[in-house]
Amino acid sequence: MAAGFKLLVSVNIAFLTVCGNLVSGQRSFSIDYKNNCFLRDEKPFRYISGSIHYSRIPQYYWQDRLVKMYMAGLNAIQVYVPWNFHETVQGVYNFTSDRDLDRFLDLANKTGLLVILRPGPYICAEWEMGGLPAWLLQKPNIILRSADTDYLQAVSNWFGVLLPKIKPWLYINGGNVITVQVENEYGSYFACDYDYLRHLRALFRSFLGDAVVLFTTDGNTDKELACGTLEGLYATVDFGTNDNVTEAFRRQRRFEPRGPLVNSEFYTGWLDHWGDRHAGVDALKVSRVLGEMLTAGANVNMYMFEGGTNFGYWNGADHDTRFRSVVTSYDYDAPLSEAGDPTEKLLAIRDVIKQFQDIPLGPMPPATPKFAYGFVKLTKVGDISSLLNTFSPLGPVESPYPLMFEEMKQYYGFMLYRTTLPRDLSQPTPLISPLNGIHDRAYVSVNGVFRGLLERDTVLVMNITGQQGDTVDVLIENMGRVNFGSKINDYKGLLSNLILGADVLTGWRIYSLDIDGVIAAGWPHSEGAESFPTPQDQLTRGPAFYTGTLQPNGIAWDTFLKLEDWVKGQVWINGMNLGRYWPARGPQQTLYVPGPLLSATMPNIITVLELEGAPAHLRALFMGQPQLNATAGKS
Fold first, then answer.
1. DSSP state letter for 186
2. What does the alpha-carbon distance between residue 133 and residue 123 come to, in Å, rounded to a whole number?
3. Cα separation of 62 and 52, whole Å?
4. Do 65 and 306 form a contact (C-beta atoms < 8 A)?
5. Per-residue pLDDT at 470
6. Tell me, what DSSP letter sits at residue 346?
7. Are 456 and 319 in contact (CB under 8 A)?
8. Under a CB-based contact definition with an 8 Å cutoff, are residues 344 and 588 in contact?
9. Shortest CA distance to 518 belongs to which of 386, 359, 387, 355?
10. Which of 138, 134, 143 lies closest to 317 in space, CA to CA?
11. Which residue, among 282, 468, 339, 366, has the nearest Cα to 57 in the 3D structure?
12. How far apart are CA 220 and CA 222, in angstroms?
């Protein structure tokens, strides 16, 4: 292996020697089409990069992850900017705290890492709606990622805010952003709208100038490259370990005959959906194919190098034959784990990189410390239907027929739909979603008694009984909007009527639930907070809240929360939404808890929304290591 790499190095050095004129000049970054390479300050340059998503990593760990990437031998990172992360509410922009893009770019710059920026407006990334804000769907007929007038206006407004913030960070302006991607894998989208791409190109040039290198990224097929490329935008490809390197770059050459070879997404791992087996890519395959690409003189970005976590409701979903939600962990089997720990895959990659360029001297920074805090006992606070005054203080919106999340201007989380039975049902009677209108999961109760669930694409009918006038509660969970393909117009809630036997259910009272805001404000432990403690012998099935306290022990280290025997739900610690758990379906069994979220001296408040039924033991376990690869269940 070592002798083989020495041969590869000699080939690579020859490539760099002939590429470009080795003369000093003004600070610049450009493409040398004659010699098929990038030029940095008029000297030949090749980036070896890794993807990292600041939106998936708490800001207090940004520097730790960036230093580890630098010490692995990378000279660049690749970064997405999720539009919906910064403009969750239309016209309200947030670039503070975990959304402080300037601080992240500054940390990368001080670490010695250049940046390949991917500002969208669409990013995919297994992120909610591919990074597009859900408020776009208030226009019911909007055609996303096209020259649709409403969509273009929203994009123009957003880029009018974002791109001026980016301009000072361009390498040519003294920053560290060397290239900027326009859109993302557009050739995979059905629209194939070149007017849309031209509009974006004009926006980028208007705000960033003519000198910056703009590029596109598309999958390794002729169709994707044909629809995703445009004159004036440098065409790159993405592919993984199962593709033939020579064939893939030959395809890039058909669309970009001269210039550097670039794999913008070389897949070091893969994502997980709930119900799938845990994905992984062999470290030896990754290092072997990486060596092949670097031998060819190619520029490579590894996707992902550190994946992070889909905290809160930020996970995306796919919809090919059916709806499949992405799990909370975005570990991705990446070289740096979800918790930022170096892996054997990282060491193998570093061994390859150092055959082609100098890597920093010194040891790799160690993994962050972990601690197994043990068991915490929880108690029930109340069923969700008994807490509506807490979570929906303004009361319901009344409507003859159901309204979607987007119509209610609540875009994430949960909403409760309430009506009454129109007649006596002494025999089990089917409750049907005839048009597959449950987006995405419905938890149905009658007079506070949980009767079962309906689920998008898979469970469209259930039976209920009751008396005329009984209260029917349908709690709808948004499991994350589709992030890829033609179905990204992914509306949530009850999208169509529910049929009960021969009756259409009408007369709805619809409650927007501000669960996150109430918990962040200190509920259920804040002084004066409304709560309804329930004796343990009155535990029931169905959506309910539970709470407990992790007592301080003098340390605040990373840990992993396991809710064994719990079915499905959402967890908050000290007001922060850790994300979804679903051990009954798997494969993910633990949730990552960043140490700085915990207090070493004050009680740590755990709040759990269990949607189907808590176990009798009501315990949560804090472990010292993750469990992401359990056999998928069927719940």
1. G
2. 11
3. 9
4. yes
5. 98
6. H
7. no
8. no
9. 387
10. 134
11. 339
12. 7
Round to whole Å and give the CA distance between 162 and 108. 18
Q: What is the mean pLDDT of each run of 10 residues along the chain (635 residues)?
A: 36 43 67 98 98 98 98 98 98 98 98 98 98 96 97 98 98 98 98 98 98 98 97 98 98 98 98 96 98 98 98 97 97 98 98 97 95 98 95 98 97 98 97 97 97 97 98 98 97 98 97 98 74 54 97 96 98 98 98 98 98 97 96 55
Q: Is 228 helix (H, G, I), strand (E, B) or coil?
A: helix
Question: Quick check: bond before 524 cis, omega within 30?
Answer: yes
Instruction: Say if CB 74 and CB 114 are below 8 A apart.
Output: no
pLDDT at 138: 96
SS3 sequence of 423-487:
CCEEEEEEEECCCCCEECEEEEEECCEEEEEEECCCECEEEEEECCCCEEEEEEECCCCECCCCC
Neighbouring residues of 461: CB distance < 8 A, sequence distance ≥ 6? 430, 431, 432, 433, 454
Which candidate, 573, 584, 576, 577, places its Cα nearest to that of 611?
584
Report pLDDT for 583. 97
Q: Which H or E run includes 323? A: strand 323-325
Known catalytic residues are 185, 265
DSSP 188: G
C-beta of residue 601 within 8 angstroms of C-beta of residue 550: no
Distance CA 3, CA 355 (A): 11
| Coil vs helix vs strand at 76 | strand
Half-sphere exposure of 301 (CA within 13 A, CB side): 25
- Two tokens, residue 119: 């500002």
Helix (H, G, I), strand (E, B) or coil at 333: coil
Measure the CA–CA gap between 211 and 205, rounded to whole angstroms. 9
